[in-house]
Every structure is written in structure tokens, then in C-alpha cells.
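Predict the holo structure. Ligand: flavin-adenine dinucleotide.
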Amino acid sequence: MNGFAPRDDIMPWSRTPRTRMEVARPAFPDELAPLAMQGADLPRGLLAGGLQRSYGDSCINDGGALIEMTGLDRFICFDRTSGLLEAEAGVSLAAILKLVIPAGFFLPVTPGTKFVTLGGAIANDVHGKNHHRAGTFGRWIRSLSLLRSDGREHTVSDDDASGLFAATIGGLGLTGIITRATLQLMPIASSNMAVETIPFGNLAEFFALSAVSDASHDYTVAWIDCLAKGDLLGRGIFTRARHASDGVLRVKPPGGPSIPIDAPGFLLNRFSIAAFNEVYFRLAGRARQSTMSYDPFFYPLDAIGNWNRMYGPRGFYQYQSVVPPEVAAEVTAEMLRAISDARQGSFLAVLKTFGDMTSPGLLSFPRRGTTLALDFANRGGPTLWLLDRLDAIVREAGGRLYPAKDGRLPPAMFRAGHPALDQFTTHLDPGMSSTFWRRMTP
Ligand SMILES: Cc1cc2nc3c(=O)[nH]c(=O)nc-3n(C[C@H](O)[C@H](O)[C@H](O)COP(=O)(O)OP(=O)(O)OC[C@H]3O[C@@H](n4cnc5c(N)ncnc54)[C@H](O)[C@@H]3O)c2cc1C
């Protein structure tokens, strides 16, 4: 196909499924419409791709076409008074930060990596540590342009009555290709953060700290030791922060160490994870206040390039759930007991309370409640068995899973967790598809 070439090296961040796709990477906007129409003609259709920082199969289109949007990464307009920024969808959050921090602005919402594109952040309606104050990324999108696979471009704003805007925010790339968007930025006085870390001994202490801190701080999140048991179940380190007011507006220079090859899988086992959790808890185990740059605060994992290779050639699974506030304490405890019983710890276990700001997107993941994010090395059957068990707990609680993170979310659970699914499908672009979508709609 003209402009497309077969590739088998593109995979989700969890490195689990191997794929083969017809891939194009346009450099100019006028290349897009012909490519979109060509790709949509393939039996498995077309998908737009960003920086492949989604962990599951929602960012791939095995056997179909993928248009990598990273070559379309130009800034169009930046109003340094209002903080409105218009850019092409392939621009990364890292590039946005580089432009806007010196001007005294910051992203209103950011995920835990800056290596995602504007289009990818919209299509997953990403959330950050300030969900209780700011809601999701999509709340800050004022308008976007969407190229459908028939070659027509639509510009829709946040007051759009047609429903296309709401379907595209968190729409997993299935409503068309986002070509550009206008984002409302947030003013800051400093690129530094005033950060407090507070150890807590169990889940009850987490919920108490979270309630107090969500009222007083812009950013809150907790790391938990998911192998702790009994009275220590849910012990961890709580972090809360605000933007500092010291007047420094400095962008972090690029670079840092990288993991060059797949680590052998045996490096990660329940003993090493238990030892890591113990050491981490002890090192961070006293309350502290510090001032640090925005970069290590928001993006600690970005400091190690290709950290996903740490899990070895079999890759890993991310699992992120959200459960309603009324049952959050007991359901989180049940999940942690299931993990501990299965003796499959997670290095990265993050607990956070989502606030009550409704997401604009029909399929957006965040809702009011408590969210738990976990990484599990892929050990085949035993790992899938544990994830099934966690599914049962989350589903029973009326919760949902985050499609961006999950490469094996069962279709029934997706449907149960997303009541607006039927409304969403009326806006599907018939030429767009993904491995995830075909799995959800067999
Ligand atoms: C270390 C790490 C930390 C993370 N932390 C968080 C977090 O705190 N909160 C959170 O919400 N997520 C988090 N994520 C997930 C990540 O933010 C999202 O998956 C993000 O959407 C990835 O963007 P991307 O540009 O890599 O897009 P991809 O992963 O390539 O694609 C994501 C989706 O966007 C669609 N898409 C991409 N570009 C376009 C476009 N131009 N038009 C239409 N659709 C498009 C794709 O089709 C796909 O459905 C994290 C990921 C990592 C690796």
C-alpha cells in the first residue's frame, strides 16, 4: 500500500502481544486523508497511534493499518496570556512542557509519563495525581479536529451537541483520527514542587490521610506494599504536593540511563519484590518535606528509558481498577489479600482517590472512588488466574478497569463497567478498529 509498510516491531508498553501491521508515519497534514482512506479499506481497518505508552492492546491493530501520528507534532498557537495552546495531535507532553514552563504554564492534568502524545492523552482521557481537583485531561480540551476515514475533517468543541466530542474524549481512537486540539493550560509560579511524604501503617490510615490531604493539596497519591499482611495490610507511603512559589521556571534537560536489553525474567520474583518493598518502606519510612523539580515528582519512571524491559521477554500486565467510594475500603483490602495469598507482588502498586469531577468522555475510565494500579510480571497461567480473581472482586463491587492499561480485560467486564457503550458505538468510525476493539466485540 502506498505510504504504508509492514512492521512487526510495534507493541504496547507491556510488551505482551507481538503484532504485524501496515504502518505509515506522515510528516504533513495533507498526507493524512489519503492514508486514512487507504488504511480503512484493509479488512481490519485503521487505527491512529501515539507513543505506544498504553500497556494493553488498545493501541495496536494487529493485521490492520496504523498511522503513527508522531510526525505531526507542530505547535499552531500559544496564547501566553490565556494559556490556550493549539497543537497537532502527535506532539508529546514532554514537548509541550518544554514550550510552556518557561512561560509560567503547566499541563492541567498529566499522567505518570511525559512521553505520550496529545492525541493519545485525549483518546484515553488520562488522569493524574490531581484528579480530585482537576478531573481528567479531557476536561481541559476546548476543541479538537477529527479526521474520519471517509476523508472528511470535523472540528468539535466542548459544547458540541452532536456527541462526537464526548465520544472522542476517552474514545480509544475509534471515532477517527484526532489531527489537532486546543488545550487550556494552568498557570504556575514555579517548576518546583513542595512535596510531603508520610508513611502510613495500614489501609484505614490511607483513607484518613487521603480525605484530609485531598482537601488541602493539589496532588495526592500513595505507594503501597502489596505483600504486607494482617495488621499491616495496605501499609505504604503517602505523597501530597503543591506547585511551589519560588519563581523558578526551569525545564528538565533530556537524557538519563536506559535499559538496553530485556532483563532475564528470574530477576523479578516474589522474593525480590518483597525485599524491594521492605527496603523502600524503610528508606522512605519517615515523614519528610522537600522541594523538588516537577520532573522527578511527576515522571519518576521516565528517568530510566525502556524500564518496561525489566520484566524480561514475556512482558507484564498492568491492572488498574476503580471502585465506588462506599465499598472502597473493604474491596481494596480484599484485592490486597488476594494478591498476597497468590504470592505475586507488584513493584508498582499505586493507590489514589478519584474525586467527583465527571469526565466528559462517554468511555472515560475515571469515576468517583478509589483506584488501584498494579504491575505483574507475565508468568502465564498463575498471573491470569490472579487477574481473573481481581476481576471478580472489582465487578462484584460495581467497579471498572482501565482499557489503556489492560491487555486481557474480559468483554463482559468492559460492557458492565461502561454503561454508555451503546451510545458510544453510534459515533464509531466504520473504518477504525483495534486489536482491543475486536476482542471486546467478537
Ligand atoms: C510509566 C507510565 C505511566 C502512566 N501513568 C498514567 C497515569 O497516571 N494516568 C493515565 O491515565 N495513564 C497513564 N499511563 C498511560 C498513558 O498515559 C496512556 O496510555 C496514554 O494515552 C498513551 O498515549 P500515547 O501517545 O502513547 O498513545 P498510544 O498508547 O499510542 O495510543 C493510545 C490510544 O490513543 C489513540 N490515539 C493516539 N493518537 C491518536 C490520534 N491522533 N487520534 C486518535 N486516537 C489516537 C490510540 O488509537 C489508542 O487508542 C501511563 C503509562 C506509562 C507507560
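The mean pLDDT is 92. Residues 13, 47-54, 58-59, 69, 89, 111-113, 116-117, 119-121, 123-124, 126-128, 172-173, 177-178, 301, 404 surround flavin-adenine dinucleotide (CB under 6 Å).
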